[in-house]
Specification:
Number of domains: 2
CATH topology of the largest domain: Alpha-Beta Plaits
Order of helices and strands: HEHEEHHE
Largest sheet: 4 strands, antiparallel
Helix content: 40-55%
CATH architecture of the largest domain: 2-Layer Sandwich
Strand order of the largest sheet: 2-3-1-4
CATH class of the largest domain: Alpha Beta
Number of strands: 4
Structural class: alpha+beta
Distance between the termini: 44 Å
Number of helices: 4
Shape: elongated
């Protein structure tokens, strides 16, 4: 009987320590970041040829995942821009690094010639 009690206590202790370790790991992870980009396009052909492919590649190469890209937009109030994109990054720091990368800066220089571009990043929530 004493052996069963020792084994049960050991299992319970292991479960508690494991749960605490998992909580500590989750507490250290930064929240995800979402970048919302808007564009009012003046030259559609140039925007599609010179900006979009290189900007998308730069952001994906930097770890971004597209959440929304040129989907149908319905105005809840106000006038929506013509082009809306939402990209998810693992953290705000990674989002900032992606948009400050040489590859994205080169794409943005081309995009500035064909559209009025606006982008902003916001931290997401880590729990529901």
């Amino acid at each position: 009987m004493k052996t069963y009690s020792s084994v049960a206590l050991s299992l319970l202790t292991g479960a508690v320590v494991g749960a605490a370790a998992v909580q500590a790991l989750h507490a250290e992870a930064p929240p995800p970041a979402y970048v919302v980009s808007e564009a009012d396009v003046m030259d559609v052909a140039s925007f599609k040829a010179d900006y979009l492919p290189s900007a998308a590649k730069a952001l994906v190469d930097a770890g971004g995942t597209f959440i929304a890209r040129d989907g149908k937009a319905e105005s809840l109030y106000g006038v929506p821009p013509g082009h809306i994109v939402i990209v998810r990054f693992d953290s705000l720091a990674k989002a900032e690094a992606a948009f400050n990368s040489p590859a994205y800066r080169l794409a943005k220089a081309a995009g500035d010639q064909s559209a009025d571009l606006r982008s902003y990043a916001v931290e997401g929530v880590t729990s529901p």
